[in-house]
Write a structure and sequence with these properties.
By secondary structure, the protein is of the alpha+beta class. It folds into 3 domains: 81 residues, no CATH class; 125 residues; 145 residues, no CATH class. The strands form 5 sheets. It has a 3-stranded antiparallel sheet, with no helix packed on it. A 3-stranded mixed sheet has the order 8-12-11, with helices on one face. Strand 9 and strand 10 form a beta hairpin. The radius of gyration is 21 Å and the shape is globular.
Length: 355
């Protein structure tokens, strides 16, 4: 994630900021430039905004800004009502209830982080208007309270672009309980978004692009019965020695899940590296040829995933050690073996249009 500077005063500002803490100017995210900018009301209309640094375009805030859920901008000449992140939402929590508003804010924060990566790589993201059968659609669903008072949890999942996110997992206790029950090393809202959209990306960039053969060479035959594979996973668990070839035990379930997990991890790694670089964090000196071609080290522009891994592995080890010093679990509890790194490189090659 990039760091930004206020166009009005030059103070550092962060992706999540709604206003500059130094000068107080309101901030809005401009998707066309993938930048956070200081804005001021348009002279003609108080509900329209112009950037402080340039007056060429008129913007309006995403309607969800009314609930302090989103601060992304929409060009006033756009036919879209909502911003690039929020326009894919179907069902959303009720913002008129304290739980609904709090959960939606947390979920939206993760969702906008997801779309930051989609914008950086210009990944395909048709909605249901463009593709009624397979376009992106997010339903943020509450658990169902049954007549007897018991709770029926919502299942997180993907079906041809339709992604369901369980709103209850915006609450840390619920998410941690689920993590422990599933014996997972970590569980986050952003991880859910990245994993589930990985299935959508597989549809678009592997299946629909005619790349199933190259996919199968690394991940296996995705035509294997998915439900049987899922049942086997939950009844038997991962196979012995799975850690040498799969990024997570859930990745062992089926080739689709293996790809989705790898997609999520490529986004985890690249975005974390960009954040570290913006803060000036570096642990291992990079080779001279790498520095010559990537002096600014923008991980989103690096095409060789081996170079990404070269920087990420020592950084993640250091971060894990820092967490241990605080008595916390590993921040990144995963090992990039040669086989796993090859799978991640395949996904990265798709995203950077090299495959």
């Amino acid at each position: 994630m990039k760091l930004f500077r206020c166009d009005n005063c030059g103070n550092p500002i962060y992706f999540e900021n709604r206003s500059c803490l130094n000068c107080g100017f309101r901030l809005g995210f401009v998707c066309e430039e993938i930048g956070l900018h200081a804005v001021q009301p348009d002279a003609a209309r108080a509900d329209r905004w112009r950037r402080v640094d340039q007056q060429q375009f008129v913007y309006r805030f995403c309607p969800n800004a009314a609930f302090d859920i989103c601060n992304w901008l929409v060009r006033d000449d756009s036919d879209e009502e909502f911003c690039t992140a929020c326009r894919y939402n179907g069902l959303v929590p009720d913002p008129n209830t304290p739980d609904g508003l709090r959960r939606w804010r947390a979920i939206s924060d993760a969702q906008r982080h997801l779309f930051y990566s989609f914008l950086r790589w210009d990944l395909p993201r048709p909605g249901r208007k463009e593709d009624p059968e397979g376009g992106l659609l997010f339903d943020l669903k509450d658990d169902v309270i049954l007549p007897d008072g018991s709770c029926q949890p919502v299942l997180i999942g993907h079906d041809e672009g339709h992604i369901v996110i369980r709103t209850a997992e915006a609450d840390a206790p619920t998410r941690e309980q689920q993590r422990a029950m599933m014996n997972e090393p970590y569980r986050t809202l952003l991880g859910h978004f990245r994993h589930e959209t990985g299935h959508f990306i597989w549809n678009r960039m592997v299946r629909d692009a005619g790349k199933t053969e190259s996919f199968r060479a690394l991940f296996g035959d995705e035509s294997a019965d998915y439900q049987q594979a899922l049942d086997r996973h939950y009844s038997e668990g991962p196979p012995p020695g799975w850690g040498s070839t799969y990024i997570s035990h859930y990745a062992t379930t089926h080739p689709w899940e293996d790809f989705a997990e790898c997609f999520a991890h490529v986004l985890h790694i690249v975005d974390s590296l960009e954040t570290a670089h913006m803060f000036g964090i570096a642990l291992a000196p990079m080779s001279h040829d790498f520095l010559a071609t990537h002096a600014s080290f923008d991980p989103y522009s690096v095409l060789d995933f081996d170079r990404i891994a070269e920087v990420w592995i020592p950084l993640s080890m250091a971060l894990n050690s820092i967490h241990h010093s605080m008595g916390e679990r590993d921040l990144y509890p995963f090992i990039l073996t040669p086989v796993i790194q090859q799978k991640l490189a395949y996904v990265h090659g798709l995203l950077t249009r090299q495959i």
